[in-house]
Amino acid sequence: MPKEYPYHEGLFWAEPCMSDAVLKLRLAAQRVLGKVDTKELTRSRAEYFQEYFGLTRASSMYKERLQSIWENRHKLSNRLAHIS
């Protein structure tokens, strides 16, 4: 459809820079791990990442958020009705 994201007038599409993303992820990991080389991850550190950033936690967070949205759908519906 014309005038629909990402081609809407006045908007632009930003291509990701993979090398910049890799660098930023490495820096973030180094901060969390006390500035150690990611190749030297110990099992406990790998478990830490799995616990906080793994599929189980991510899916659990998505599930909780979707349940919250579903439980509050009537409130949301009322708000949206007033907007349009």
Write a short abstract of this structure:
This protein is mainly alpha-helical and 84 residues long.
Keywords:
84 residues, 2 domains, mainly alpha
Overview of this protein structure:
64% of the residues lie in helices and 0% in strands. It folds into two domains: 1-41, no CATH class; 54-84. It has helices at residues 18-32, 43-53, 55-71, 73-83. The model has no long low-confidence stretch (mean pLDDT 78). Helix 2 runs parallel beside helix 3 (55-71). The chain has 84 residues and is an all-alpha fold. The protein starts with 17 loop residues before the first helix and ends with a helix. The relative contact order is 0.05.
Shape: flat
Structural class: mainly alpha
Number of strands: 0
Tally of alpha and pi helices:
4
Task: Give the helix/strand layout.
Blueprint: H1 18-32, H2 43-53, H3 55-71, H4 73-83
Helix pairs in contact: 2-3
